[in-house]
Write a structure and sequence with these properties.
Structural class: alpha+beta
Number of domains: 2
Helix content: 40-55%
Number of strands: 5
Order of helices and strands: HHEHEEEEHHHH
Distance between the termini: 81 Å
Strand order of the largest sheet: 1-5-4-3-2
Strand content: 15-25%
Largest sheet: 5 strands, antiparallel
Number of helices: 7
Radius of gyration: 31 Å
Shape: elongated
Low-confidence stretches: 207-220
Length: 220
């Protein structure tokens, strides 16, 4: 029986490039290495993006304590009595009479408002968010100097992951196929937003930048 002329031609296999396995291995290991830093920067970024709605580094603290009164009239004596009753070992920055029947005990991140005649103590202040405070400190580069090199290294890792990811897959699923379309769509997101919003000048309500193109605001 003669062979049918309509026999299907087997699909052409993509050419195997000798460097691609090495590229994938380095991409994988760089991704593993960057997991911790990615969590820090991603979670901190989400937190500080909404800084207008909440304090990303501290909980706002407000408590009421009622001690057996009346308390001593002198501010120093009142302060000692209150700190002992509440078990506070932290040394206050200041203890003073805030009014006729009011004593304030001031710490770095909280203040105790005491009413000596009734023994009522209103505690107001901030309590640190243990993870986010440290993550924000790193993300905003408050550590400076040494951390700048770590942040630069992480930026280079992200660049490598982005660029190497373009070349990991061959054929139609790779850069020469749908990969190019998806990459262009992703790159278009910031461009479209800048055009749509009007850019920095429109947001700040300022005049266009000077001929030098430099931003007049000081760098952070």
């Amino acid at each position: 029986m003669a062979e049918s002329s309509s026999a299907q031609v087997p699909p052409r296999k993509a050419r195997r490039l000798p460097w691609r396995p090495w590229l994938r291995a380095l991409h994988r290991d760089a991704g593993y290495f960057g997991v911790g830093l990615t969590l820090v920067y991603a979670l901190s970024g989400l937190a500080v993006n909404h800084i207008a709605d909440w304090d990303p580094s501290f909980h706002q603290l407000q408590k009421t304590h009622v001690l057996a009164g009346p308390l001593p009239a002198e501010p120093e004596a009142t302060g000692k009595r209150v700190l002992g009753a509440l078990g506070i070992r932290e040394t206050p920055r200041e203890v003073y009479a805030a009014g006729e029947d009011a004593v304030d005990i001031v710490f770095d991140r909280r203040t105790l408002h005491v009413t000596p005649s009734t023994g009522k103590v209103l505690e107001e202040g901030q309590s640190p968010r243990w993870f986010l405070r440290a993550a924000n400190w790193l993300h905003l580069n408050r550590g400076k100097k040494a951390w700048t090199y770590v942040a630069d290294g992480y930026a280079l890792i992200l660049l490598y992951l982005a660029i190497s990811g373009l070349f990991m897959l061959p054929g139609r699923k790779g850069l020469l196929g749908r990969g190019a379309t998806i990459a262009l769509l992703g790159a278009a997101v910031p461009v479209v937003y800048v055009v749509w919003s009007g850019g920095p000048e429109a947001k700040n309500g300022s005049a266009p930048a000077s001929a030098s193109g430099a931003d007049s605001r000081p760098a952070h």
